[in-house]
Amino acid sequence: MIESLYLDEENFNSYCLYDGSRVLSKFSKVNIFIGSNNSGKSRFTRAFFSKNNELKFTLNKFDLQILNKLLEDLKSEITDFYDEYIIGDYGGILNILTTIEKIDFITEYFNINDIVLKGIYDVKNIKYSSYNTKKYITQGDIESKVQSIAVKYINEIQDKFSHLAKVRLDNIYFPTLRGLRKIYGTDDDLYLKTTKKDYFKLEDDALDNKIYTGVSLYEDLKKLLLGTKQERDRVREFEDFLSKNFFEGKDINVVPRINKEVVYVRIGDRDHSIYDLGDGIQSIIILTYPLFFYQGKKRYIFIEEPEHYLHPGFQRIFLETILHERFSNFQYFITTHSNHFLDITLDVDKVSVYTFKENEKIEGEPRFTIENVENEDSNILDIIGVRNSSVFLSNCTIWVEGITDRIYLRKYLDILQSEEDKQFKEDIHYSFVEYGGGNITHWSFLKDKDGNHPNIEVKRLCGKLFLISDKDGAGFKKNGSPGSKMERHKELKDTLRDRYYCLEAREMENIISSPILKKVIEDYEGDNTAKLKFNKNFSTKDHFKDSYLGTYIEKNIPDLSRKYAAESGTVNDKVNFAKRAVSFMQSENDLSEEAITLGKKLLDFIKDNNS
């Protein structure tokens, strides 16, 4: 994957980073470019896509620091040898060494043999016409020593970087002008022609196979279905994807009808013209079918505003799709105005977010600033003009104390409904709301503490809700008497009834199963795992449900290599701890009894509000 990009004067003269530097770094699997209109993000994306043979960049698998260290070591070994023996003519060796320069960036078709090894081969093959020495040494000895040094570094560089003999940037671009219907009265892809005319070189036919507008779907399907078994299997995988995510598991066939030159989708036992599908599904088809057809190949994919026609739930499906391991060879660069994309990226790794802002013009030409930001930065919402009214509501909401609760519950729901005929989708059928623990007292399902400052009316914000709270020591004070938390639990139960669940455990982390907890610890410990001796209480059912989990881990496992308890006693790395835990949960057998009970209650609640 591309790791950083140099903003050269020729192609990116109008851009710089907020600190004035010209190296855009920290690219991830998915890179989101966000900004207001006329902020320069689309212009940047098109240059990034189309100027691939002129770009200067680094790759995450090509560690230039290691390469440059090898080059410096090579020079040092040879000059140290010369300093020890040679005092006169260097045989031209110094001139050759100056040609072996530090490499800050590479370009497309970068060839390690031509760019790096050529100079070292020149060193290896050098012949000496005359020389002087401090100590006696023959010309043959000098040549032999220099050759052995050169060969050592040639072998090491080839071993580490031979797979980069030739770097290529194979790109795909999805413009905003896209659709599955040809313009009436022509067989040409006018979306493609218009995109090329407006933004690229119209005569550059090489772009035709790199710009996807959706119009080529009919011809693409024909070629694949008449091709090899592997190509036909890709179509089958695409059909399975549509079936699972949009048609409730019904059998789907996507077929190009030759007599009508139109793609038809067979859903169950009925045929539909692809034009008869909803605009959102058509948009998803345009954005995803090339991914299935190119899977297994390395591609850099540029997408302009994928949120067009997509419900927030479909946006989630799209993001989850492009992050799927079957597309591990793809890297994405996406322009968007969608705050939903930002919200979704909070739950996943491998995403970087960049804001674009227009600065004052210089001699009439606009200037733009790019900044790599955290995706939870609320200032981004101001940049794209998000208001509360921009957010659409799901049919029901699940209220949780924080992000880790959301991570666990999402996994429980995924596992428990994996065998269901109908799959309920987050942000379509239900959404999570984080209320932040003690802030629950601000909402209208609890009585007002102060009549002059009434609680927030929850019904104005969302539909039916299910609320979950931690047990937090059952709400007792240290002397054993009921505290305010216990009174709050009772009031919530009286108000929400079956739509309220108080954990039997102290916190959400405490309802993971013992085997999963053990796997998380072993994953954190790595090579140190062999030294660990788990206390016999560790695997006892529910033994840690009322304990502060971080403290429990440290008390029950000697010889740990790291600290697990926060000052409060809970785990000190809650978000990453949760992500590790759910990564080991594959089936219902991995869940504790309470996790299953709670998950099923939530699933029933979602079903009731989506029937």
What does this structure look like?
GO terms for molecular function: endonuclease activity. It comes from Mucilaginibacter terrae. Keywords: Endonuclease, Hydrolase, Nuclease. This is ATP-dependent endonuclease of OLD family. By secondary structure, this protein is an alpha/beta fold. Among the domains are: 64-164, no CATH class; 216-296, no CATH class; 393-611, no CATH class. It contains 19 helices and 17 strands. It has helices at 9-12, 41-50, 64-85, 93-99, 112-124, 139-161, 190-199, 217-225, 229-246, 279-294, 312-322, 339-345, 379-383, 403-416, 484-496, 514-525, 549-556, 574-583, 593-608, and strands at 2-6, 15-17, 23-24, 30-35, 56-59, 171-174, 252-257, 262-267, 270-273, 299-304, 330-336, 351-358, 368-373, 396-400, 431-434, 464-469, 500-502. α5 (112-124) runs antiparallel to α6 (139-161) and α14 (403-416) packs parallel to α18. The model is unreliable at 386-392 and 475-482 (pLDDT under 50).
